[in-house]
TrEMBL record:
Pfam families: Aldedh. Coiled coil: none annotated. It is found in: Cytoplasm. It catalyses: D-glyceraldehyde 3-phosphate + NADP(+) + H2O = (2R)-3-phosphoglycerate + NADPH + 2 H(+). Gene3D superfamilies: Aldehyde Dehydrogenase, Chain A, domain 1 (3.40.605.10), Aldehyde Dehydrogenase, Chain A, domain 2 (3.40.309.10). Its EC number is 1.2.1.9. InterPro entries: Ald_DH/histidinol_DH, Ald_DH_C, Ald_DH_CS_CYS, Ald_DH_CS_GLU, Ald_DH_N, Aldehyde_DH_dom, ALDH-related_metabolic_enz. This is NADP-dependent glyceraldehyde-3-phosphate dehydrogenase.
Amino acid sequence: MAGTGVFKACLDGDVYKYYADGDWKMSSSGKTVSVTNPTTGKPIYKVTACTQDEINKVFQSAKAAQKLWAKTPLYKRAEMLHKVSVIMKEHKSPLADCLVKEVAKPAKDAVTEVVRSGDLIDYTAEEGIRIMSEGKFLVSDPFPGNERNKLCLSSKVPLGVILAIPPFNYPINLSVSKIGPALITGNSVVIKPPTQGAVSTIHMMHCFHLAGFPKGLISCVTIKVSELGDFLTTHPAVNCISFTGGCDTGIAISKKANMIPLQMELGGKDTMLVLDDADVESAAVNIMKGGFAFSGQRCTAVKVVLAMESIADALVSKVNAKVAKLSVGPPENDCDIVPVVSESSANFIEGLVMDAKQKGAKLCQEWKREGNLIWPLLIDHVKPDMRIAWEEPFGPVIPVLRIKTAEEGINHCNSSRYGLQGCVFTKDVNKAMLVSDAMETGTVQINAAPARGPDHFPFQGIRDSGIGSQGVTNSINMMTKIKTTVINLPQPSYTMA
């Protein structure tokens, strides 16, 4: 059970503490934030709510610790990250148990997330050594009008204090995808967990604590976002924000960011374009995997299918047959479809479905909902005037729009406010490349559903889907800046014969 054994240090009674200066602490506020079990709809955990003064002290410690950490040899930073990976994998069961209870992640997927996160930390440590050990040397005379009297040495140095804000759906994996690059490059980190996923993040943070990182280098602050969210994200000590979450929140943060670097992965309406020469069975399999995994609560989930009219009937028929075989129920039973994260999310999804139904779309399955549990649903004959054609449900509901031409599908994709990922299914590689080039989105998958990984691949969005690029290498690079030293040589007092 979460909170037992090694993780008891994070608790005071039934309240989870925040982490600062190498220790777990209770806030002086006396306030707590409740975490709800999506399956039961009942509170399951409580976390302490930090005060403004406590946040100030966290940032002061982070700034001081970062200065010393930046001077720590690179190989020692990597060794400590490898140690975290080992500890996380040793405690994968209680970490996974938290994910099941907090975000209703199927048990097998929860274990996979923990192991994947440990692997991500290991890869980050090794890639960080490679990147950070490289520098650049230039001389002045290649530029017109200059003599060979200046030598330029440039290298990567840390930004300072990184504020990391992960989402509820992958609180462990998307935490370490921010923390790992920050630490290997010599930065300090302050992490603000999501409410749903807070305890999973706290337990993950305890693995860093057990690894023995310097005091103040890594902190975990739990807050009432309505009271201190802006104070946290606009704090003058923050040198970079890495945020994964909703579009509106991300855009609001970016408007107040005071010219600091931003890495933001926001929402998506990931398009699957199925052309008339596609392998329809493969497309159907990928709709199931890409659209219904973790009940569609993934930024890279298939969120709209644009199918050519000539193959649409066959595609819809195959998907419907597969939907009928999905198991629906609690995450503890490893069901395919589990409850969505909150009642408000379920209400939003229901509103999209009812709007489509009222405007003439065909519900291929009966609409069924019990609390936060929504049965999988394919919606056919969706039209552009329906909300679900454009809005992100973040649930187990997939709309199908029938199109006459590839150009029509491309135009729909490019008209969206989002631009995270998309995919195209066709047997013609030339056509696939032309469609990929025309789709205005961060990534295009050919003959496969959208996916974030492998974690070292570049991952980015355009328009309202985000700023900056992720993936291990890109995150390492964006959490550093170039430092240049120019050596000015004296003019020679002699001339060569």
